[in-house]
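Section 5.1 Outputs to date
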Amino acid sequence: MVDFSGHLSSIALAADPRAGEKMTREADIQKALEQVTDAYGFHGFMVMVVPAKTSRNLSDSVVMTNWPKDFLASYDAASMMAGSPVIERLRRSTVPFTYDIALDSRRRSDGKGNAALSLFERVHLGRGVYIPVHDVHGTCGAVAFGGDREVVNSGELKELTFLAGYLFGRLSEIRETRARTPGGLSRREIECLHWAAAGKTTTEMAKILDLSEYTVNHYLSRATRKLDSVNRVQTVAKAIRAGLIN
C-alpha cells in the first residue's frame, strides 16, 4: 500500500516504480484516495464517469466515493444534476477546475440554487476541485475532492491532478482485469497459483495440496485460460496484480 500521508509531491510518487504493484484491489485505491483527501484537508472524494446529457441521476455515474449516501440520494431525488453548471463544465472541459457551491448555485439554470447550497453545506462539501481524467480506452471521468477548506493553490492543484490521473488509471486497470476473468478463479485454482507464486514446482504443489500432478497442472492451465495468459509466469503476475493472490 502506498502511503499518501502528508502533502506528497507527484515527483515522489512517480519515482516509486513499486507504487502500482502495491495497488491490486479496488480497496487499495479507495484507501489511497482517502489518504489524499485527508492529506489535503478535504472531507471526501468522488470518482465518476462523465454523465451523458441524457443522464438524470448522479449516483448512476459514481464509480467510487466516500461522500455521504444520503447526500447522493437527496441530490438525485431533487433532480439537481440537470441544472448543475459543474456537471455541464465537466462535459466540455479537460482542464481541472475548482468549485464553490456558494457561487455556482447562483449560476444554476433550474432555480434550485438555494436547495443545492443547503445540501452541499450540510455535508461540508461546499468547496473543492474537479479533475477530468481518462483511461487508456478513452473513458472520460473525473475525480472530485470536496470540503470546506480554502481554495487549493496552483502547486496543490498540480499534485492533485497527477494523483487523480494516476489512481483513476490504476482503478481502470484493476476493474478491467477483473472483468476479463470469466466466472473468476476457483478456490483450487487460486491455491495452485499461490504456491506457484511461492516458487513451488508442480510436484511440490501436488504434495502440499494432496493432489495428483495431473490435477495441479489442470488447475493451473484453467487459470491460465481464464486470465488470458500465455504461460504460468504471466498467469501468476496477472493474479497478483488483480489481487487474487498475495
